[in-house]
Each structure stands twice: as structure tokens, then as C-alpha cells.
Write a structure and sequence with these properties.
Blueprint (H helix, E strand, L loop, with lengths): L1 H5 L2 H56 L3
């Protein structure tokens, strides 16, 4: 804390800019992580729908089959 008080205003503004740059990369990383998660969930939903259709088709085939 005291180190910041002893630095010049230019040094402080440069440090603030450096920290903001780091947060910018953090924000981009979080956005990418959420996008990957959303794509994964949408893929799983699509697979679930496809599997439900396939199961319904198999059940229909079993019901139509002569016993």
C-alpha cells in the first residue's frame, strides 16, 4: 500500500493499465469458456433428442413384430 503512495502518478496509471490488460484477458477467457460450455450443452441436447427418437422407433418396431 505504501509503495503505491511513494510512486509517481505516471507509475500508478501505468500499473492500472497493466492490471486492466490482465482483466481483459481474463474476460476473454471466461467468454470462451462459457461459449464452449453452451456449445457442449447444445450438443448433448441434440444427442438426447436423437436417442429418444431412436428409442421410440425401436419400441415401434418391437410392437409391430409378430409374436
Amino acid at each position: 500500500m505504501y509503495a503505491l503512495l511513494l510512486q509517481s502518478a505516471e507509475d500508478v496509471s501505468r500499473e492500472i493499465a497493466r492490471l486492466q490488460h490482465g482483466y481483459e484477458f481474463l474476460s476473454y477467457g471466461l467468454i470462451v469458456a462459457w461459449l464452449i460450455l453452451v456449445v457442449y450443452v447444445l450438443m448433448m441436447v441434440g444427442r438426447e433428442k436423437r436417442l429418444k427418437r431412436e428409442i421410440a422407433g425401436l419400441r415401434a418396431m418391437l410392437e409391430e413384430r409378430p409374436k
